[in-house]
Amino acid sequence: MRKFLTAKWQDLVMANYQIAPHLLADFVPKGTSLDFHDGKCFVSLVAFMFLDVRVLKVPVPFHVNFEEVNLRFYVKRETPEEMRRGVVFVKEIVPRLAIATVARVFYGEPYEAWRMSHAKTEKDLSYAWWKADSVNQIKIEIGENAGVPAPNSHGEFIVEHYWGYTKRGASRTDEYKVEHPKWELFDVKNYEIKCDFGTLYGERFAFLSHEKPHSIFMAKGSPVAVYKGAKLVL
């Protein structure tokens, strides 16, 4: 497989919410099924820095470093060789219109362009994104380094997914591989989440605006490689 995109994903804040599986049914790509941990279904609000972006090894002027916020959930697909654990994005938000447009038009990914900012000190990290009257922010106080999550733990379930799946209609699914080393996680001492889930992601997700996350932590991140996608033969 050919590497399509390389970058560094850094300072990932991951707020993880338990959700009823039927609320995700319409988003599950054909050929995959929802993945559960300890019988629970999760969505994650993820904010992070997308750094040193290169497409086919070439940096794109003015689009090298930027923030991203996404809402994702977890699926799996069984192949003759392995069980592939992956993610599906409900929506991805970036501050660059060109990135959002290319991702939507050519790859079917649910990207939108919003105004965005971030701030980081030794102890605090925050991301903000806004459009019109919808102003959203996630802010954390960074705790201790918890290390690489243990096998079969909740933390491992959230971060150790190495495939992406895109629903391109009722009968088409695209699959792509994501490669990175295991990530160290950091505890979160305190946090504040102001997110208008209903406006951002649709009415079925509106209740999350008032829900406490099942878990929240920060991943240090690493260099990543995203391989060229392929249409599944189903």
CATH topology: Acetoacetate decarboxylase-like
Report low-confidence residues grouped into runs of 5 or more: none
CATH architectural category: Beta Barrel
So how many helices?
3
Widest sheet, order of strands: 1-3-5-6-11-12-14
What is the H/E order? EEEEEEHEEEEHEEEHEE
Termini, distance in Å? 20 Å
- Give the DSSP E fraction (strand runs of 2 or more residues): over 45%
Shape: globular
Main β-sheet: number of strands, strand sense, barrel status? 7 strands, mixed, barrel
Count of folded domains: 1
Percentage of residues in helical conformation: under 10%
Describe the 3D structure:
- The structure is a single chain.
- With 234 residues, the chain is mainly β.
- It has a single domain, classed as Acetoacetate decarboxylase-like.
- The protein has helices at residues 97-107, 154-159, 197-201, and strands at residues 3-18, 33-34, 42-55, 58-59, 66-78, 83-94, 111-113, 115-120, 124-131, 134-147, 163-167, 173-179, 185-194, 215-227, 230-231.
- The protein starts with a strand and ends with a strand.
- It has a seven-stranded mixed barrel with strand order 1-3-5-6-11-12-14.
- The radius of gyration is 17 Å and the shape is globular.
What is shown here, in short?
The chain is mainly β. 9% of the residues lie in helices and 54% in strands.
Topology (SSEs and partners):
Blueprint: E1 3-18, E2 33-34, E3 42-55, E4 58-59, E5 66-78, E6 83-94, H1 97-107, E7 111-113, E8 115-120, E9 124-131, E10 134-147, H2 154-159, E11 163-167, E12 173-179, E13 185-194, H3 197-201, E14 215-227, E15 230-231
Parallel strand pairs: 6-7, 6-11
Antiparallel strand pairs: 1-3, 1-14, 2-5, 3-4, 3-5, 5-6, 8-9, 9-10, 10-13, 11-12, 12-14, 12-15, 13-14
